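Protein 1 of 2
SEQ + STRUCT:
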Amino acid sequence: MSLSSTIRQLPKTLSSFIPAALIASNTVLGGPATCSNTQLSCQNTTAVADTCCFNAPGGLLLLTQFWDTNPPTGPTNSWTVHGLWPDNCDGTYEQYCDPSREYTNITSIITAAGRTDLLDYMNTYWKDYQGDDESFWEHEWDKHGTCISTLEPSCYTDYQPQEEVVAYFQKTVDLFKTLDSYAFLSAAGIVPSTTKTYTAAEISAALAKPRGVQVSIHCRNGELDEIWYYYNVRGSVQTGDFVPSEPDGSKSDCPATGIKYVPKVSGGTPPSTTLSTVTSTPPSPTSVPGVPFSGRGTLPVTSNGHVNGCIISGGAWYTTGTCATFTAAPSGSGFTLTSSKGKCAVSNNVLTCSSTITAPTIFSTTDGKLLYNGSSSFYTSSVPTGSIQASVSVVQQATGLTIGWKGA
C-alpha cells in the first residue's frame, strides 16, 4: 500500500495534520489537485477553464474588518472579522451561489472537524454586534463563501462533506491574523479617542504602508467602522498565494476630514435613557399575525428568498456594514419606527427616516414582515452593492423585497 493510500485511510482529524508533501505529488488531501497554473486572478487576458485552481468570476478577494463600538465587540485593542468576499474584479459580485450549501450549523461543522481552536478564535475575533455570532457566520458563508469557485466540492480530492466550509473560515482567520489594523493605525499615531479626529488621507496612508497598496475605509455617522483589504490570488483560496491588490470599483465613503475613531470602551454614541430602558424588555414575537414589533431591533431585508443586508438609519437598503437599530413603539392599531435619524414614514412613496418627519407612518406586521397599508411588498430599482444605498419604495420596481425584524 502506498503512503498516500495509507494517509487517506487515516481519520480526518489525524490526516489533516499530515504535510501535503507526503501525499502523492499530484494531489493535496482535503484540497484541490495541485495547481500548476501560475496565473494571478483578475490579471488573465483569456478565459481560464480550471476554476478549481483559478478563482473566477470572483477573482478579487476582500478581507473585511469591523470596528464596532455601540455595542463594542471583540478586544478593545483589535478590529474584528467581517468576512472574506469574492468580487468580480470590477466592483460587482455574485451572492448566494449555491442554495444546497447554505448551512445553518457552522459551529457544528467546525466542531465536527475537530477545529475547536478555530472556533475559539472566531468566538473572540469574529463577532456579531447583536450577539448572534452563529447567524453572522452563516450569513457570511451563505452569501460569500458559496461563490468562491475553488471551494466547490468538485474541486476536492477525497471530499468530506462541508470541509470547504472549514477551509473558508480558516483562510479568513489566517488572513485576518496578518492584518492587525489596530497596530497599523497606532504606528501612525492614529489611536481611538473621544476628542481627536483624523483625515481620510492619514488613515488610508497608515493602512496602505504595510502592504504597499490602498484599502477602502468606511464610516458610519462620521465614525470609522470598517476596512476592506483587497487581494488577487495565484491558485486556490485554500493553498494559493494571496497578493495584495488595489481596490476595484468599491471606494471609501468616509469624509475627507473630521473622522472619529471612537474607543470601544466608550460604547460609541450612547443611546438615550429611554432606549436603554426599553432594551431590558424582550420584543414581542412577530411570528403571530397582527402582533406589532416592539422595543429595539434591526430591519433585515429579504430579496430573492435570501436575507441580504438591512434597512439603515435613513431608511435605505444597505447590504454591507453594520445594521441600524430602530425603536418600534405601539401606536393606534400598529406601531411607529424611529432610528437615530428620526421618525420613519413613507414619504413620496419612499421609506424615509428623518428629524424633519413630524407625522410618522403607522406600520403593522404579519408573519414577521413589515406591512405598509396591509402589504409586505417593498421595491428598489436594483440590489445595492458595496457602499451603494438603495431607496426603498412602495411603488413596484425591478427588485422586490420584504422587511423583517430582529430584536436587539
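Protein 2 of 2
SEQ + STRUCT:
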Amino acid sequence: MADREQPVTLRTRKFIRNPLLGRKQMVVDVLHPSRPNVSKDELRSKLAELYKANKDSVSVFGFRTQYGGGKSTGFALIYDSNEVMKKFEPHYRLVRYGQATKIEKASRQQRKQRKNRAKTVRGTAKTKGVEKKKK
C-alpha cells in the first residue's frame, strides 16, 4: 500500500460553528495529485488531528472527485462529543462508522407483497395461505 504514503493536502472552506447541533461543519477540499482517491477513514483521522478532536466524532460524506482527478470535494462534520453525534447524525452514517448496528428487515418487495396479501383477506382472520373468495 504505497498509496498511504503519498502526500495529501486538506483545505477547509465555509467553516461554521453550529452550537445548536453541537458541531463544526465545513466543506473539505482534498488535494491528492499522485493518488486516485483518499479513503473516508483516512480523511476522518486527518481531520481529527487537524482540529484536535476524536476520530469517532468526525463524519465525512458527499465526496466527489473532479474530472481529471487530483482533487476531491466533500462535507465534514466534527461533533463536540460522541453522545451529540449519536443524537443528531443519521443512523445509516452511524452504521457506516461502526457506532450503531444495522436494522435487518425484509426486502422492500417482500414487505409490499405481504401488505398486498393482507389486503385481500380484509375482515377475516389474517393467516397465511387463506384462499381467495370465488366470485
